[in-house]
Design brief:
Blueprint: E1 2-3, H1 6-9, E2 23-24, H2 31-34, H3 40-51, H4 65-75, H5 80-93, H6 97-101, H7 105-112, H8 119-134, H9 143-147, H10 154-165, H11 174-183, H12 193-206, H13 212-225, H14 244-248, E3 264-275, E4 278-283, E5 294-295, E6 297-301, H15 307-317, E7 324-329, E8 333-336, E9 340-351, E10 362-365, H16 376-384
Parallel strand pairs: 3-9
Antiparallel strand pairs: 1-2, 3-4, 3-6, 4-5, 4-10, 7-9, 8-9
Length: 392
């Protein structure tokens, strides 16, 4: 067990955050030495949950592991407000694992369209097939089996295990990191292996093992509505009396991250090559963003193409002696991804002849676009053009 000396725990000096020093003795953290006096943390959290937690979500209180899994995958990198509608659509369209496993790939992608981070969608389909074929359509009930599923990490596995099967596994997401780091005044970086292990162990020790589902939901709700990233509600917080960050005026700097995300800037020039009432599109392949989604003819450059450069590029890709007319160049569209910032423009072109060698492109009627899944970057342009993308 890791043990903590009482003298170290007394090192709460004004203006300083404490870093717990440890000596190796056993395999678990000491509850008694880490928790606020009298175990007030868990009691205060559950009291707040009973009296003040009014946060409503369609999957809250759900015990069906399939529905919990769908909600958790959707909520990875997605705000609750945005994910809510997608969750309801998914459950309506695919009410069971079997129906999701048997669904055509493009139908699932189309339903996911606009959520981004499409690896989640691919993992969702792969896992549905695994459960249907290897587990006879029954969702695994053991934590390790759940964790072994494609696209499921420790947080998602703990959420499914606790909410569906009431197993004693603590969830550790951004809300939990924030609550624990502030209440206990822990300045260990949450984006390092050591920091993650430390918070995970402490979260497990704080977990109410008699009712892990209620406790896990409560701590996430508390982080989302009270101990918020900005402007936390400290003055009315039930943990104000023993919160280290509040006592030291450090709530705004916790939790700590050690790394700054490296951002890649990219510029996309999309050519909308139109021949008659049809347009050229292709399905993206490879390991870049938006794998298996559709797009128009793309030329990626280091910066915005000027008019002459646009004409030079068109002369290179269109058939010799073919006439073409640039009918419109859109305003600049932008989208921010976690590690990439995208900028781009859409160049609308009317062609006199079809492409001599269309390669991986296909020439499709405009009314077929609504049946295909496009990345959000392109959806914004199509919506601007009032192209109907709904599946009538």
């Amino acid at each position: 067990m890791l043990t903590f000396s009482r003298s170290i725990l007394n090192e709460y000096m004004p203006g300083k955050l404490y870093r717990i020093k440890t000596t190796m003795a056993n395999s678990n953290l000491s509850n008694k030495s880490l928790r606020p006096p009298g175990g007030r943390f868990s009691r205060a959290l559950l009291w707040w949950n009973r009296k003040s937690n009014t946060r409503s979500m369609p999957w809250k209180g759900e015990t069906d592991p399939y529905r919990i899994w769908i909600s958790e995958i959707i909520l990875q990198q997605t705000r609750v407000e945005q994910g809510w509608l997608y969750y309801e659509r998914f459950i309506k369209e695919f009410p069971s694992i079997g129906e999701l496993a048997r669904a055509p790939e493009q139908k699932v992608f189309k339903l996911w369209e606009g959520l981004g981070y499409y690896t989640r969608c691919r993992n969702l389909m792969a896992t549905a097939h695994i459960i249907e074929n290897r587990h006879n359509g029954q969702f695994p009930k053991e934590y390790q089996q759940i964790l072994n599923l494609k696209g499921v990490g420790p947080y998602t596995a703990a959420a499914i295990a606790s909410f569906a099967f009431n197993l004693p596994y603590a969830v550790v997401d951004g809300n939990v990191y924030r609550v624990i780091s502030r209440v206990f005044g822990i300045a260990k970086p949450i984006d390092t292996s050591k920091g993650k292990a430390h918070f995970s162990t402490l979260a497990g020790e704080l977990l109410n093992r008699k009712n892990p589902a209620t406790y896990n939901q409560a701590i996430m709700d508390f982080g989302a509505t009270v101990c918020k990233p900005q402007a936390p509600l400290c003055n009315t917080c039930v943990m104000k009396k023993f919160c280290r960050a509040y006592a030291l005026g450090k709530t705004e700097i916790l939790p700590v991250k050690s790394k700054r995300t490296s951002i890649k800037e990219r510029w996309f020039n999309y050519f909308i090559l139109r021949y008659g009432n049809r347009v050229y599109i292709r399905q993206r392949q490879g390991k870049d963003i938006w794998q298996k989604l559709y797009e128009f003819y793309l030329h990626e450059s280091s910066k915005k193409l000027e008019v002459k450069q646009i004409h030079d590029k068109l002369s290179a890709i269109l058939p010799e002696s073919s006439s073409f007319q640039v009918t419109r160049i859109s305003n600049v569209h932008r989208q921010k991804l976690t590690h990439q910032h995208l900028s781009g423009q859409f160049i609308e072109v009317v062609m006199g002849k079809p492409l001599a060698d269309k390669g991986e492109f296909e020439l499709v009627p405009f009314n077929k676009l609504k049946r295909l899944a496009f990345p959000k970057f392109i959806i914004s342009y199509l919506q601007e053009k009032n192209v109907n993308l709904s599946q009538d």
